[in-house]
Amino acid sequence: MASYEVIGSIAVMKFPEEEKISIKEKKKVAEKLLEKNNVKTVVEKIGRIKGRLRTLKTKHLAGIKTLTTIHKENGCLMKVNIETCYFSPRLSEERKRIMKECKNNEKVLVMFGGVAPYAIVIAKNKKEVKEVVSVEIGKECSKYAQENVRMNKQEKKVRIIQGDVKKIIPRLKEKGEKYDRIIMTRPNLKETFIKYALMVAKKGGMIHYHGFSHEEDKEEMVKELLEEINNERRKVKVLKVMKVGDIAPRKYRWRIDMKILN
Ligand SMILES: C[S@@+](CC[C@H](N)C(=O)[O-])C[C@H]1O[C@@H](n2cnc3c(N)ncnc32)[C@H](O)[C@@H]1O
Prior knowledge:
Bound molecules: S-adenosylmethionine
Number of helices: 7
Helix content: 25-40%
Order of helices and strands: EEHEEEEHEHEHEHEHEHEE
Distance between the termini: 51 Å
Largest sheet: 7 strands, mixed
Strand content: 35-45%
Low-confidence stretches: none
Structural class: alpha/beta
């Protein structure tokens, strides 16, 4: 069975590889989807999301030939190129949950910011938050992030920084910047990047860390993360470990919420 998700006016379809469906058949299914849904373009997702930039390849199947669209969520508009930028509409509930946790006067850092959906959803819906900084390595993705900040009129509240968190965060530290809340919407890569978050994490602040593992490896993932934090001579209290999405059969995206104690 084919499945799909909708980003703005583009439907991204996924066909089971083992079924060896012909391109003619795929186009027929795509045309039907175009008729039934409020979408203007249908593409097929080729392979998996991969690489440091977490991008995907697609093949056009029906409708207008474009890879760029504007997606609406949580009262915000996100412009995105579905091939050059990571964007998952399935994370909109997670963004809403995190936004609701943000408090008055907080300075928030989003590491791995993408086209800035977390930063914008927080800034636009939580007027009391002081500032949101979003760091993203992808150049094209960061251009969309800047455009999205303007489109949502959040220039006064949201700062987009293009670059590698490994270089940018030590610079923020040098300038004496500290954050009350750090959101680590990590790519599914081995490195935890936690030491960079700790460089600018305020005592008493919060880190929302995204990790990836099978259900049975969850405890181990948390244990290894806490060991790394301990090696950095920092203390945290884990407040919550919750499942916030699935990324492969039986493999999940977890959020680990930690309060910084020292
Ligand atoms: C899972 S995506 C999350 C994007 C965004 N937060 C969202 O939810 O739409 C991870 C993002 O991290 C970026 N990234 C990967 N390594 C990075 C690094 N070292 N420094 C900054 N950004 C990085 C990727 O380009 C990608 O956009």
